[in-house]
Structure formats: structure tokens, C-alpha cells
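TICKET: design request
STATUS: open
ATTACHED STRUCTURE:
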């Protein structure tokens, strides 16, 4: 019996991990199918004037299943978005104890979603409810996603908890001197503050929800669960107790069953395919050769390469990885300072700002603003930021003289264009199709996936093994973003009912605060939040509250969205949480200080770009007006 018991203990974690891997792979393949059918719909509608009746509904059905089915893989791989600048300082022993508590808290959200989702599924089955739309199917098939996926999700989290407990029992974890290795102090402080936040929700709703959310995030609870659990606390304490929690799966379904957000996982998938096919290297080779005539041309080329790749991917950290792996070693070997090399990669990665931007898609969803209009509005401001970055780089190289001049022939330049032409075509196809009205941003994402696969086959980089790996990785990255959206919208539901935005707007309107003073305060708020929170977390936390204030302050909502993306880009460059900084650190293995030092000027230039945009809003509004969007 002991042998069997030991065998089960050994095998069970492996089975759970395989379940997560299989579910993530299925989710990725399903989203790839959505990309294919979306492209098929574009062809049928535009070329044959025979639009389909099933693609739209089928795609949204898959979207709901995709986000929740791929999410356990994110937990398994440790890719969930967390605010770890405090917990990263703890000893392994204290960190393990804290993670047991934080993952146990995460289970509250999943159990709530699974339990009430199962209730929705059974109710829909008994009543024979069908979907609304051209494609009819039993609604319980959609709601079945909640009990099935949360079961796998809970198993994966319980496996992690069991692993941490096992390490603690065997005393395998290292210690640190001082408070970092004082679990009694750390755990007591975390539990006390969290309990106080929960109590405060019942006393002062808004302050309590904010405190509870911040305590959970800073304590290491994944952002998606921290926001979701805070929303659940608000529903439970402010409204009708357990009865109000039945809204959780309803909110989750409404969030994921959305054609706008469907673009995010497909843009990510297209970007991952292009990255794996070596397009980043080809783009860098092109940009560096064409910029070689400038002082510091290789560094300027890095910035341009990042900008071009940003127009394919839409996620800044992916851009930093794709270009940084190639550019940083070459820059340093050519005499450029480490600081400038790090800055041009981390700072130049403008995937959040330059369309097609996942950040702008999220902003469009939260504010009900046209994503196509936001993409067009970001084009000129993004170009201005790239020019600012390039000008600073040239100035730095001229003053310091720390770079190697490289002579490039016209033949080499032309060959670099030939090598990168397929990659260069991607942003033209995507953005050209959107601006010309051939397809929507979501359809453009599907077209990008199909085009990226074509590029992969042309470059002979796609085989069955790496195709499955790409599907799995893109599903994991896409679901991480969607889970943050899920948790955020549960919290936003509570905040919306408390009328926080309206109260805030009325206070500003009656307090006699000048618009520029209010905007300065908002800018400082984003600078401070950027030091501690991930860009997506900042967006979903602040936009529902702040964007209704923009008409009061005389700022166009579209202009605010583009300026916000500049602030988010700053957040990626500011310690202790700047993700682009850590991406460069992962690539180089260097200390964080020279990376931070090299990116300070780029963060300052992003702030300057935001100020220029707010002073001259037509920079963002001119192109959408010309395009008639």
C-alpha cells in the first residue's frame, strides 16, 4: 500500500501538469481555427460577396472556452501577471509560505466561478435555452466551460500548494537574514492588512475595495485573482450576500464573449509565429543597415527595428525579446555603452503604443471606443516618439563618441530588404486593411495569423513540433491577458454600481480645480503606479474611473487613450516592476542598475511625448479625421 501511495503521490502531479498542457494546446489550436475561419469570412465577404452566418458566433464561443481552457497552463508555467517587487525580496522559505496563502485565496475566485457557473449550466440545460444569433446551439454548452475549466485550474493550483508545502516540510528552501526570513512578521502583516481591507469594504465601500485589491496584489496574489476576489468581496458585502455571487459567471461570460477582445489572442499568436520564424532578426538586419550612415546608426537601427516589429506584435515585452536577443550583443561588441544598448531595446519596444496594440484594444473595450480609430490616432504620436528616441541616440553617440562606425554598401542594404520583405509586409497588410475598411481590427488579427504561417512555411521554420509549441505558448500568453480582464471586469461591476467615476467627475467640476492641474495629477498618478503595477493592471484599474472625467477636463477620449499608452510604456521602464527591464535582464544576465540607468532618458522622452500630445491633440485626431474613421 505504501508503494502504491508513493506512486500515486508521484504520478498525480505529472497527470495534473499534463492536463494543463493538453488544455492549453487545445485552446491554442481552437484559436488558430478561429483565425482560419475569420480569414475565410473576409475572403467570402469581400471577394465573393457571400458572408457567412456562423463564423461570428463560433469565434465568440471559442473565445470564452479559449481564455479559461488555456489559463491553467499559465499557472503551471508561472506566467501569471503578479506584482512581485516586494515578495521577490523574501527568502525562499517565507515566499513559499506566503504563496500557499495567496494561492489559497486564488481558489476563492475559481470556486465561486465554477460553482455558480455550474448552476448556470444546469439551469440552461433544464430550460432548454439556446443561443441568440444566426448560429443556434444549446447555451449549456457554453456555460459548461465554467465547471470544466475551473476544475482543472483548481487542480493545478492545489498541485502548486502541495509542492510548496512539501518543500517546507523537507526544509529544502534557503533563508535570508533579517525580516526577509521572518514568516511570522510577513504573513501576519499580510493577513492583518487583507482582513482589515475586507472589513473596510463593509464600512467604506470604495476605500475598502481599493485597499483589499492592493493588499492582495502586493502580497503576491496573481493580478487576475486579486481583482476578481476584491470584486467578489464587494458583491458579497455590499449587496446580497451569496445570492449576489451568481453574477460572477455572468460578468465573465459578458467579458469574454466580445468580438473586440478576440483580437488580442490572435495578434499575440501572429506575433509569436513571426518571432519564432526569425523575422525579428531580419528586421533588425534591415534597420541597422539602412540607418548605418547616422552617428550611432546601429543603435538608431535598433530603435527602428523595435518600432517595425511593434507594428506586428502589439506587446512590448515580446518586441524587447525578439530584437534584444540579436541587437544587444552586437551593439556592445561594436563599442556602444551597455546603458545605451539596454535603453534602445527596452525603451524602443513600443508594442503598447504602436498599432496594432493590445493595450489600445483593451482601452477600446473599456471605453466603447473604436479600436480602428485608436490605431489611427496612435500612428503619428508613435512616430514622434520614435523620432525623439532616435534624436537622443544620435546626440548621445555624437557627444560620447562611444560607438563604432560601420560602412554598409547599397548592395547589402538591398539584400537586407529582400530578406525582410515578408516581415515588412505584415504591418502594411494589417494596418492597411484596417484603415481602408477591408476588415475590422479583429479580422486583421486573424489575417495576421494566417499570413504569419505563410511566412513560416516560406522561411521553412514551421514543422509539426514547433507548430504545437507555438500554439501552446500563444494560448498561454493570450489567456494571461484575458484572465486579468476577467478579474478586472468583476471588480469594475462593483465600482460601476458605486458610481465612483461620476462622483469623482462631479467633485472635480465643483472643486474649481483647473484642467491642467487635474491632468498633472493624473500623469503623476500613472508615474507612481507604473513603479509598482503592470501596465495591463494599471489600465483596467484606472480607465473605468478616469476616462469619464476627460470631457470635464476638455480632453478627447481618443487622445487620452493614446497618452495613456505612453504612460504604460513608461511603466514598462520604471523599477521595481518594469517588465521590459526584466526582459533585458533575462537576456543579458546583467545587474538591474545599468539597465535602469540606460532607460531613464527613454522614460523621460515618453513623458515628453505625452505632454506634446496633450498640448497638441490634433497630432492624434488628424489621421482618423482624414481616414474618416
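STATUS: resolved
RESOLUTION: sequence designed for all positions
ATTACHED SEQUENCE:
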Amino acid at each position: 500500500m505504501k508503494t502504491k501511495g508513493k506512486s500515486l503521490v508521484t504520478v498525480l502531479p505529472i497527470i495534473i501538469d499534463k492536463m494543463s498542457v493538453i488544455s492549453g494546446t487545445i485552446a491554442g489550436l481552437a484559436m488558430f481555427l478561429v483565425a482560419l475561419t475569420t480569414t475565410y469570412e473576409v475572403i467570402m465577404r469581400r471577394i465573393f460577396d457571400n458572408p457567412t452566418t456562423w463564423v461570428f458566433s463560433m469565434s465568440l464561443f471559442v473565445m470564452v472556452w479559449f481564455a479559461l481552457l488555456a489559463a491553467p497552463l499559465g499557472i503551471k508555467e508561472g506566467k501569471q501577471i503578479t506584482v512581485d517587487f516586494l515578495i521577490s525580496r523574501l527568502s525562499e522559505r517565507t515566499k513559499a509560505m506566503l504563496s500557499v496563502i495567496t494561492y489559497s485565496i486564488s481558489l476563492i475566485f475559481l470556486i465561486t466561478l465554477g460553482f455558480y457557473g455550474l448552476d448556470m449550466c444546469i439551469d440552461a440545460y433544464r430550460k432548454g435555452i439556446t443561443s441568440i444569433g444566426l448560429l443556434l446551439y444549446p447555451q449549456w454548452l457554453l456555460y459548461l466551460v465554467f465547471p470544466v475549466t475551473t476544475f482543472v485550474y483548481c487542480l493545478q493550483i492545489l498541485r502548486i500548494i502541495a509542492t510548496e508545502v512539501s518543500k517546507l516540510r523537507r526544509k529544502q528552501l534557503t533563508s535570508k537574514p533579517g525580516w526577509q526570513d521572518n514568516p511570522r512578521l510577513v504573513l501576519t502583516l499580510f493577513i492583518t492588512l487583507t482582513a482589515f481591507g475586507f472589513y473596510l469594504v463593509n464600512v467604506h465601500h470604495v476605500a475598502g475595495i481599493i485597499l483589499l485589491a492592493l493588499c492582495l496584489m502586493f502580497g503576491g496574489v496573481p493580478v487576475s485573482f486579486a481583482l476578481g476576489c476584491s470584486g467578489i468581496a464587494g458583491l458579497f458585502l455590499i449587496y446580497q450576500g451569496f445570492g449576489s455571487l451568481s453574477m460572477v459567471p455572468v460578468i465573465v461570460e459578458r467579458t469574454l464573449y466580445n468580438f473586440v477582445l478576440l483580437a488580442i489572442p490572435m495578434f499575440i499568436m501572429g506575433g509569436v509565429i513571426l518571432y519564432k520564424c526569425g523575422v525579428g532578426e531580419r528586421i533588425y538586419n534591415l534597420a541597422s543597415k539602412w540607418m548605418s550612415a547616422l552617428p550611432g546608426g546601429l543603435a538608431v537601427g535598433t530603435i527602428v527595428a523595435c518600432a517595425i516589429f511593434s507594428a506586428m506584435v502589439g506587446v512590448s515585452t515580446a518586441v524587447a525579446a525578439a530584437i534584444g536577443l540579436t541587437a544587444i550583443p552586437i551593439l556592445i561588441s561594436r563599442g556602444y555603452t551597455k546603458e545605451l544598448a539596454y535603453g534602445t531595446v527596452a525603451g524602443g519596444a513600443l508594442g503598447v503604443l504602436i498599432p496594432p496594440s493590445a493595450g489600445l484594444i483593451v482601452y477600446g473595450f473599456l471605453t466603447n471606443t473604436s479600436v480602428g480609430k485608436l490605431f489611427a490616432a496612435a500612428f503619428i504620436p508613435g512616430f514622434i516618439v520614435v523620432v525623439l528616441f532616435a534624436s537622443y541616440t544620435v546626440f548621445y553617440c555624437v557627444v560620447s563618441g562611444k560607438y563604432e562606425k560601420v560602412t554598409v554598401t547599397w548592395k547589402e542594404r538591398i539584400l537586407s530588404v529582400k530578406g525582410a520583405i515578408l516581415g515588412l509586409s505584415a504591418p502594411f497588410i494589417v494596418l492597411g486593411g484596417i484603415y481602408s475598411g477591408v476588415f475590422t481590427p479583429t479580422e486583421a488579427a486573424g489575417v495576421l495569423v494566417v499570413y504569419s504561417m505563410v511566412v513560416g512555411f516560406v522561411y521553412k521554420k514551421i514543422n509539426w513540433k514547433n507548430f504545437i509549441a507555438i500554439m501552446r505558448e500563444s494560448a498561454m500568453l493570450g489567456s494571461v491577458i484575458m484572465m486579468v480582464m476577467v478579474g478586472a471586469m468583476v471588480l469594475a461591476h462593483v465600482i460601476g454600481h458605486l458610481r465612483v467615476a461620476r462622483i469623482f467627475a462631479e467633485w472635480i467640476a465643483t472643486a474649481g480645480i483647473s484642467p491642467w492641474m487635474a491632468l498633472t495629477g493624473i500623469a503623476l498618478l500613472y508615474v507612481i503606479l507604473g513603479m509598482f503595477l503592470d501596465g495591463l493592471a494599471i489600465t483596467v484599474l484606472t480607465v473605468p474611473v478616469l476616462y469619464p472625467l476627460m470631457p470635464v477636463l476638455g480632453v478627447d477620449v481618443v487622445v487620452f487613450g493614446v497618452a495613456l499608452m505612453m504612460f504604460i510604456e513608461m511603466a514598462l521602464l520604471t523599477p521595481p516592476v518594469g517588465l521590459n527591464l526584466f526582459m533585458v535582464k533575462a537576456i543579458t544576465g546583467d545587474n538591474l542598475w545599468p539597465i535602469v540607468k540606460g532607460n531613464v532618458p527613454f522614460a523621460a522622452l515618453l513623458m515628453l511625448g505625452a505632454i506634446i500630445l496633450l498640448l497638441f491633440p490634433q497630432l492624434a485626431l488628424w489621421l482618423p479625421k482624414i481616414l474618416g474613421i
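CLOSING REMARK: The mean pLDDT is 88. Residues 277 and 459 are 7 Å apart (CA to CA).
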